[in-house]
Each structure stands twice: as structure tokens, then as C-alpha cells.
Amino acid sequence: MFDERDLGRGLLSFGSRGLAAKAAVALAMIGVASLLILAPFGGGTTSQAACLPGLPGQGGDVRPKGPLRQVQVGFAQLIDQIARDRGLPGKATLIAIMTGLVESELQNLDYGHADSLGIFQQRHLAGWGEPDQIRDPVYAINAFFGGDDPPSPPGLVDINGWPSMALGDAAQKVQVSAFPDRYAQRESEARDIATEAGIDLTRPGNPYAGRSGAPTAGSGDGVLDSDDDCGGGEGGLTSGQPVNGVWPPERQSVTDPTGTGGLVTPRTANWVAEARKNLGTLSMSCWDAHLWNPASDHPRGKACDIMVGADSRRSAPAKARGDQIANWAITTAGTTGVRYVIWYGKIWSSRRGTWIPYNGGGVYVPTDATGGHYDHVHVSMW
Q: Does residue 180 sit in the same domain as residue 264?
């Protein structure tokens, strides 16, 4: 799929950065040439190690085995440097790396489908800029991040609520790809590259840096201040705060939008619509007879279960997805009318505003994947 021409273009894209950068490129090209000679004899094994952030070829950089990986690490470092200069959080860097992997294998290509070019395969005819601008990595990365400066297509910071979206969905909002599911598939690889590049993906920051009139973190739009997508442990959950709103009772009058055939309240239907808009594709069901638990909110049309695809105690991606859903639910509870959330052996109440251990309520076994809510997030409405 990729050859020496691709790798050369990726490295030579830094050539306009002055004498020091040109010298670095020359050294990198020598290294690439050596690696290309050694590749047939087993030189393609990836080495994972932390290294100092910066442009490829700088002193102190780790030299990963494999020329393509070397280019990817270099562009990841450049992406992160621009993100840090702009004051963006580490999550923005991660989404950009994931996107670059899908579009170009994180290379600065001077060809692509139709008029697509560069790291993100941005198109001149779609308004991303002139071809020579798109081929400039610094311009392309800043264009991907977006903000008040041209070009006109919305970049990441122009998308309201992007920090609380699934990573792949946030990338799709920028790229508008015909294959939206591909971005999420590259998350693990993007994290590996970031580790090799010495990038802190948990770095906090202003998710709307460079954009005027943007929502602020904690303003109720689901924006979180730091990267909460890493799996494992319990550090991915935010505590939220007590919500003291008044929510008048509603009757079940809307056909369940999740397709169960039952009726839900308008408040529940609105929550489903907002969750889909902010969290992307969800495996979700709301109304259910729940004959084994008549006291449940499901038969009343006031609850939804969102599956995460696995027992999150054994799956970091499932834990990360569940954390994201639960965090969004509680940080938006003041506007959506969420009463309580159960996830990962804990329950959060809007009146209390904190997480406490979940004991199963006398109905469920809390150590079971389903009973303890390790494979799904339960959200109940007022």
C-alpha cells in the first residue's frame, strides 16, 4: 500500500522549516534509507518507548524500527506540538492522530481520492484551502483543529460538545467521511504511537481554544476538562454535582425511539435524541415490561439501558465507553432531567450528586456483569 515515495513525501514535508529542520530531514532520510535496506531482513518490528516531544530528527528522539512508524511518530509529535501551542487538551491530539491514520496512515501524501491531499486528505474543492496549503502539515493540522481563522469547513473546536462525543464520532464530524466507523478502529494504534512520541493524552486544556463565542467547560453541554476515555480503574468517572431542578410528572405518550414498541415519556425521548446527537451510535433500549422487577422505571417509560459491548471489568474500551456515557449523562442532568445513573457497580443520584456503591436493590446480583451494570449504563429520568 505504501512505498518509499510515500515515506519520502512525509519527511520532505518538513523541508520548508528552515536550516535546522532541513538538516533534521537529511538525517531522517539517511535513517529511512538504511531502514529500507534492512527491512527485508526483519527491520520492521515496532519498538514502543517514551521520547521527548518535538519534530522528528531532533536530539533525544527515539528511533522506532520501521520507516513508516518513524514518520508517524514525527507527525504525531507535530500534531501535539500544535495542539499544545493552541492550548487544546490531549484528547484533541488523540482524535487528530486517529484521523490521520485512517486518511493517510499519518503521512503527508501529495495524492489521494479526487483532489484529496495531505495528512487528513483535505479537499481543495470542499474549501479546505489551496493544494499547496493543504500539503503544508502545519496548515493542515491547524485547519483540522479549526477556529476563527480560515479555512471555512468546521474543524474540531467548531463542533459544540465534541469532548463528550465518542472519539470516532468527533473525527467524523470534521471529516464527513463515507466510512464513519473507521476512525474508532484506529484508537488503540493512535495511543501506541502517542506513547512512542512521548505525548500526554490526559493533558487538560480548553477544548474550544482558538474559537470565539464558544461554550465553556462545565457550562452544561457535557464538556469535560480532561481525557476521560482511558479504560481501567475508576478514575474515568466524574462526580458531577447535585441537581435541584423541578421536573413535573409526565405520562407515557411517545413511541419509544429505540424501537421496543413501547411508550416512553417525552423527557425520555428527548434524552435519547440528545444522547445520540452527542455520543454517536449507541446500542440502546428504553421501554421494557421488566416483569421480574415491576418497580423498575423501564415499564414506566422513564429509563434506558445503553450497552457497552462487553464486561467492562475485562475490556478497557468498554470501560472507557461506559465512563463517557455516564459522564455525559450526569454532566447534562440539569438540562435533560436525569434522576439517577447506574454504572460499573455504582449509582449516581441527581439529588446527592456523588457516586456510591450499588448493592443491586435487592433484585440484582451486584457482582454479575449485568446485575452490577458492568456491561451497560442504566439512566433513569424524573
A: no
What is the DSSP secondary-structure string of 285-328? E-----TT-TTSSTTTT-EEEEE-SS-TTS-HHHHHHHHHHHHH
12 lies in the same domain as 142: yes
Alpha carbons 302 and 336: distance in angstroms, whole number: 12
The reply to whether 40 and 167 lie within a common domain is yes
pTM score, whole prediction: 0.47
Cα maximum dimension of the chain: 74
- Please give the helix or strand (H or E) that residue 126 lies within, else none: none
C-alpha separations of 192 from 46, 88, 167, 201 in Å:
10, 20, 16, 11
What's the first-to-final CA gap in the chain, in angstroms? 54
Q: What secondary structure letter does DSSP report for 236? A: T
Count the residues in the chain.
382
Q: Which residues are bridge partners to 254 per DSSP? A: 264
Please tell me the distance from the alpha carbon of residue 273 to that of residue 337, in angstroms, as a whole number.
13
- pLDDT, one tens digit per residue, over 85-144 is 999 999 999 999 999 999 999 999 999 999 999 999 999 999 999 999 999 999 999 999
Q: How many domains does the chain have?
A: 2
Rg from Cα positions in the chain: 23
- Asked if residue 243 is part of any domain, the answer here is no
Quote the pLDDT of residue 137. Answer: 96
Cis peptide before 317 (omega within 30 of 0): no
Q: Are strands 355-357 and 346-349 parallel, antiparallel or unpaired?
A: antiparallel
**Domain check: are 30 and 158 in the same one?**
yes
What is residue 108's three-state secondary structure?
A: coil
DSSP annotation string for 173-193: HHH--S-GGGTGGGHHHHHHH
